[in-house]
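Working notes for the structural subgroup meeting. M.R. asked for a predicted model of this chain before we commit to crystallization trials. I am recording the input and output together here so anyone reviewing the notebook later can reproduce the run.

Input as submitted:
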Amino acid sequence: MSLSTIFRRVGLKDLVSNAPVYSGAREASGGLNLIFRRWATKKSAGSTKNGRDSKPKNLGVKKFGGERVIPGNIIVRQRGTRFHPGDYVGMGKDHTLYALKEGNVRFERHKLSGRKWVHVDPKDGHVLHPIYADAATIPDAESLLC
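Returned structure, recorded in token form:
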């Protein structure tokens, strides 16, 4: 018997209407236990635990004791107040200490508390605020204050 005679006898209508319906892999294989697997088309790359690094923050002392600074020079970049601002030294919002006047940097440590201060000794010497400078020129300033 040839294949053409088999196809003629069965007919297309019988093939479509009597199609077997399988509920699982066991029935489809005729009782054999087959496991259907779906294979990946590409091999997945393994994830690494390395490869992440933060940018350097460049913290630390930038101008050391005795060095000359001009206004705006950064003296110390720090997290928190490891060093506190002293005379003619300002502090930024990220606790960066910078010079307010031209002069030399001086570091000081308090004997009892251990707190570290950074000062700038001005090139022209210490300048009094204009209010206090006017008070010093009045001859009877001491009698007015008492």
